Amino acid sequence: MLIRAVVITAGLAVLAGCAAPTRYIDPAADDGPVAMTMDYRDFEKAATDAVEDMLASGAVNNPNGGRYIMVVSRITNDTMQRIDTDQLTKKIRVALLRSGKVVTTTAVGLNGAEDEMTQKARELRESEEFDQSTVQSKGTLQAPDLSLSGKILQRNHKVGKEQQVEYYIQLSLTELASGLAIWEGETPIIKRGPNKSVTW
Amino acid sequence: MKSVLFASLLVLGLAGCASQPEVSNLLADRQELKVDPEVIYITAVTELFEERIPQPDGESLLQIQFAVEARSDAELAWKVTWFDAKGMTVPGVGEGYRKASLLTGQTRYFKATAPHSRATSYQLHLREPK
């Protein structure tokens, strides 16, 4: 009995010693293994490609001066993974805001406002509990000029004893006044790895 | 002898109290192109251009283009850090390195655009991904 307990304890100790410790990863210096699924590095690459191309092409330069107002439209996830597309769009929004060329409205969205407080704050009109001079006036909201939409596609292939997973991150920036896509971009992300890897 | 010792201690004391030297102008020491030795062994940066793209508001965006030629099949990672006129970094979309593969004899051209018009200089770092 004692021997068995000692063996089990020793076995657990060895296994614990072999396990990789939990650690923080610095995105600025991450040379870690690549996953077959989409990870943060893929979104960062797609966002970087998109923003640099938008800035270099001049598509986000407002000819009337000032900043364009952008709304995020639908980004379709046509992959086998559950992806929150905000991982992509947030990076683009932050970078465009920092560039000083584009500001994103959170008051309009396909499924309602991203920040419902814009409307809720206006419901304070007529309320006797609030100083009406501090309540938002009518006609102050800014309508969007540009709409960002897109799609993330996934295609799986067998390549010999390996599998190849192709992701395509497609984005369009539509000028709402004309309905024309004034900028479009596609970032392919191709990964090849063992057949055993799961891509969902 | 005592006075020499006293004077020495006084000088040392004053030196300790002296304000730190200014570090505001180290721009001259920063290399625009920094290539790790492992990468130099298998590739060569054959071109490095920069230009400013005019913007409608009168400002301009810094853009660089560089060419890398591979002596053998190579993997490399590169990153551009942007700086404003005061030498402070200008944040871009992400902080990570961009990976690239080159075939033997292949020359690839890469471009990067500054995230803001206030970027006036840069540092391009090429390294071998582990």
Explain how this protein is built.
The complex is a heterodimer of chains A (200) and B (130). With 200 residues, chain A is α/β, with parallel strands linked by helices. Chain A has four helices and five strands. Chain A has two domains: 35-102 and 146-200, Rossmann fold, CATH 3.40.50; 106-141, no CATH class. In chain A, strands 2-1-3-4-5 form a five-stranded mixed beta sheet, with helices on one face. In chain A, α2 (40-57) runs parallel beside α3. Chain B has helices at 2-17, 37-42, and strands spanning 33-35, 43-54, 60-70, 74-84, 89-90, 98-102, 107-113, 119-127. Chain B contains two helices and eight strands, in the order αβαβββββββ. Chain B has one domain: Immunoglobulin-like (Sandwich), CATH 2.60.40. Chains A and B meet through α2 and α3 of A and β7 of B.
Global geometry of chain B: globular
> How much is the radius of gyration of chain B in Å?
22 Å
- The low-confidence runs of chain A, each spanning 5 or more residues with pLDDT under 50, are none
CATH topology-level name of the largest domain in chain A: Rossmann fold
Report the CATH architecture of the largest domain in chain A. 3-Layer(aba) Sandwich
Count of individual domains of chain B? 1
Number of beta-strand segments of chain B = 8
| N-to-C span of chain B | 61 Å
The tally of structural domains of chain A comes to 2
Break the fold down into its secondary structure elements and pairings:
The complex is a heterodimer of chains A (200) and B (130).
Chain A: H1 2-18, H2 40-57, E1 68-78, H3 86-99, E2 102-104, H4 117-122, E3 146-159, E4 162-175, E5 180-194
Helix pairs in contact in A: 2-3
Chain B: H1 2-17, E1 33-35, H2 37-42, E2 43-54, E3 60-70, E4 74-84, E5 89-90, E6 98-102, E7 107-113, E8 119-127
Parallel strand pairs in B: 1-8
Antiparallel strand pairs in B: 2-3, 3-7, 4-5, 4-6, 4-8
Give a brief outline of the structure.
The complex is a heterodimer of chains A (200) and B (130). Chain A has 200 residues and is of the alpha/beta class.
